Amino acid sequence: MELRIDRQALVPVVQQVVDSLVRWLRCGNVAPGTRLPPVRQIARINLLSQACVVEACERLVVKGLLVARRGTAFFVASPQANQLEDFSWDEGAEGKQLGQRDPWGLGCGGLPESWRETDDLAFAIRQVSRTDMASLFNYSTPLGLPALRQQIIKRLIRLEIQAQEHEVMTTSGASQALDLIVRTLFMPGDSVVVESPGYCVLFDLLRLHRITMIEIPRNPNGPDIAALEAVLLKQRPRALFINSFHQNPTGSSLGRLVAKRLFQLANAYGVLVIEDDVYADLHTGPGVRLAALDAKRNVVYVGSYSKTLSSSLRVGFVVAPAEVISRLVSVKMISSKGASPFAESVLACLLASGAYGKLVQRQRQRLNGARRLVLQMLDDADWEVFGKPSGGLFVWARSRKQDRAQIRAHAQRCGIQLSSSTAFSPSDETTDWLRINVAYACDQQARRFFQATSPDRPQAF
């Protein structure tokens, strides 16, 4: 049994063994009662100590995935009913059937657990637990932790976005930020412009609040300006929602000329712009944010640290004029009593020490390397790529040779979870385009999948 062990990663080797065994159990259709290869054999093949393998297996025994018999012999446990029903949720990915093993998340929306770094985060958690006991027990302030908001303003200055401390409000991730914006600033029946393809969670949120969506095409350098101008002229929407950099799902970024023309149109027609920039820390190189062009403060800017630091330790923020922030704060305190002061203190500690900046720099470097490999694999397999993004998590692509049903069949055989065929369309239209998460795409399962989609062509990998 060959495991995927990255000795350069900051994830402990034992945890990598656990993760690899879990993937083997979930993706390999391993029958209950199957005996694992001997510990000595696993250790020898993967250049590990036997103690390391035993500890990993014992952790899986505690989780109920393995059972131990006769000393160091381990067997696959029988699945419990609650295990079969307790599926993880991932925005934009195809659903899993009841009893189906967890596939490899090629179409998922976040970083793999093996990419997460725990040392600095664990240190910050211990530091806050020792020095800021109030954050463990008390509610947050309405605007959020002052020390964190000061760090956010420093980040905004680097992006050439001007804001005062009272114009920044923290949230429990960007999802809460968008929810507060929609429920506070719009009424049922209002119409807003959204991009297609675009962020599926936003579409669900707007449907929930009965907001009418007017879709315009997303191009490789931003929204279709001609289509936007026509919509603004004829339908007079209240607002425009836009991903500025490394859009979900296409990975495309807003071009400078498109950004300036979009901003001119929004001002001319009095349209509020909600700029979702949750992938800002994964961007490399120059770029322009709409909020940086906004002297009249007609842009509500949304950011997040959850995509890079931790999906569990959820921290996001909103930047807007003081009167808008005041309204958002009122709804925030009514609906949730504020965000988590503990999570905010931990993030503020990481930002102040410089550890977060170094973390995202390593993530960018790793993603850039993975993206180059993925684009080469897609080219070798004769896939069409939307705009060839230069940063972020996603590539938007489709096979030139095979249809969606054929691609899906290959994915099932290879243990791959694809992105949804309808979620990224505001009108639920079906597409052959797939969101590919580059952090998952260099795995051996993903490579086998791409090879299978182009069986008549020699592969470079």
UniProtKB/TrEMBL annotation:
Domain of life (superkingdom): Bacteria
Matching SMART domains: HTH_GNTR
Keywords: Aminotransferase, DNA-binding, Pyridoxal phosphate, Transcription, Transcription regulation, Transferase
Gene3D superfamilies assigned: Type I PLP-dependent aspartate aminotransferase-like (Major domain) (3.40.640.10), Winged helix-like DNA-binding domain superfamily/Winged helix DNA-binding domain (1.10.10.10)
Record-linked Pfam families: Aminotran_1_2, GntR
Positions of the HTH gntR-type domain: 11-79
A GO term for molecular function: transaminase activity
Family: In the C-terminal section; belongs to the class-I pyridoxal-phosphate-dependent aminotransferase family.
Protein name listed in UniProt: PLP-dependent aminotransferase family protein
